[in-house]
Amino acid sequence: MEIQKNESQHVEFKQSWRDDCLKWICAFANTDGGTLYIGVSDNGEVCGVEDEKKLMEDIPNKILHTMGLICAVNLLGDNEKRYFQIVVEKYPIPVSYHGKYYKRSGSTTQEVTGYELDKMILAVHGRTWDSVPVPYVTVDDLDNDAIKLFKTKALQYNRLDNNSLDVSNEMLLRNLRLYENDYLTKAAVMCFHPDPEKFVTCAYIKIGFFADNDADILYQDEIHGPLIMQVEKTLDLIYTKYMKALISYDGIYRMETFFFPREAFRELLLNAVIHRDYMRPTPIQIRVYEHKIRIWNIGQMPSEVPVEKLYEPHSSAPRNPNIANVFFKAGYVESWGRGYRNISDICDLREAKLPIPEENTGGLVVVCPPSEKYLLAEKGHGKMITENEELNVPINVPINVPINDRQKKILECIVDNKLVTMMQLSKLLAVSDKTIKRDLQFLKENNLIKRVGANKNGCWKIVPTPPKDEENGFHST
Questions:
Q1: For residue 366, what is the enclosing H or E element?
Q2: How many CB atoms lie within 10 A of CB 151?
Q3: Which of 52, 278, 391, 456 is most exposed, with the fewest beta carbons within 10 Å of its own?
Q4: What is the pLDDT of residues 195-222, one digit of tens each?
Q5: How far apart are CA 349 and CA 332, in angstroms?
Q6: pTM given for the model
Q7: Taken in order 345, 348, 352, 356, is the CA torsion positive or negative?
Q8: Helix (H, G, I), strand (E, B), or coil: what is residue 314?
């Protein structure tokens, strides 16, 4: 007689009963449930059991008394060879056997300790790491500048209105679900405490510049402080100290082009900060090379969002939903799993190559390659080369029309891509649609740009200004 099954995460064969078999029952209860067969060899052949009547009483009693579980224990087979089938259901809380916890991993049973045990206990209680309360920390201990930055961004991106923000810091944090009864949570400490590393080891970002050989590091930095402030500090440091920009000019405007778009890397960095596994004592690590960036953060991808599906539409499954909510309310991210879609849109707009994600050493590695446009320009000694000469129309601005830095960047974006949309400009410049709409209207009213064709299918065009004369007072470049 043979059992028509193979050993797996949900099936285990044992030739005879020993009390050690209770470990396997414990493991099934802590994983997804399963079936333990007693009197069956490893290849599924029924070898039978002895003294089945005694075991029929002993097995259920030992399961109940050692772990508090009630399992279906069935005696099967014929008169010649009998065997036991023990059906174990998944249990809603962690189950221990003699003070130790076990789980199934493939067809093996493993003891759960340390980090994995903490993770398992949180999961079975429906809790996430960032929702755990932190004693002995009050609102007065938090960084006021970090809270002010959050309020500014939340108002700027229309995620919260003045009434929601014109409250005490304590009420604001309670409204953000950053309290557990009277205790601040880990999400509050991570986002707003001036030194989150007092509570979470390695809660910082590490940056290094490397030669072609990974072992040859030339210089490095670390970014510490509240998470809400780490992102912008890191971006500024990378794009001022670590990356070389090629300089070109359009009219009176100086343009800096990097081998990978800042806006796209910002999305990758936000993903790393929000999805990092903070239970593991390893910082986010960014390696910068002459022609690539490599960003790595600890934490395996959820099974429902495999790496190969990141650029496809997928549900949002943040490892730290409370931290993610803070960044969403501040306008840094979307809440619907659109991070990689935004990256794809930005790279398409900037004619850049898509970053390459892969799972590596217990985390997610994303490599950002240089664009072909950048490499061609680099060969031209810094002169940016465009395929469409129409985009090279000089931007000649009347001296009596003051424009701000953001409006200058809008003009630069139009030079790069005459089909750029209002939504794309909003993402690239990290401001609201309303702000972009006002800026575009200002530029049109002052005859600096014009819309050619329909709103939906048309394009933007830079309006060249005539040479200076006494009548109009314009300058030509």
A1: strand 363-368
A2: 18
A3: 456
A4: 999 998 899 999 999 987 666 788 999 9
A5: 20
A6: 0.63
A7: positive
A8: coil
